[in-house]
Design goal:
alpha+beta; 11 strands; 5 helices; about 35% strand; elongated; four-stranded antiparallel sheet
Amino acid sequence: MSKDYPVPAGYLERETEVKKSRFIARVAPVGSRDEVKAWLEQAQQDHPDARHICWAYQIGRPGAAAEAAMNDDGEPSGTAGKPILNVIQHKDMGDVLVMVIRYFGGIKLGAGGLVRAYAGAAESVLSAVERVVQKPMILADVTMGFADEQPVRHWCELHGATLESVEYGAVVSARVSLPEQAADEFTAFCDAQKLDYGFDT
């Protein structure tokens, strides 16, 4: 499903150090709790000796409707997961998981120090990750002659659309994924080319 809100473009890792404790922050795009679980399992495999792996995620459109969760993983309550989630919400991103892996350096940071350290680690990685906004897409089915396929492909290239599938028989049947905002232009193009088309609703 397409998203009209910012999501992380991909995975990224950043490391910070506070009073000899290492904070390794990871950001990843996620669309479900299963994906969150898989990323957390990967972090545990990568860092089996870490003292804490704290995390927070926000799935869906940022705001009240988003699904969010957090975990302090043994740190004092409210000193890790909540600061991470606060940074995510401040960045107004959806479908995002931030994990902060901590290696204890021997110096206690105190509650305030932990909050600042975890928020700082989340900030470092969320500020660095690229954001993408995917526009809402719709699907259309088009039936055309063989000579029409190239003009349709050309229209798709110009308008950010893709041919999801093409079947060849007596005629050419294609499924087109196009930005919702280009629907009127696509309708005009098909009418001008005298193509049979219909939108999936």
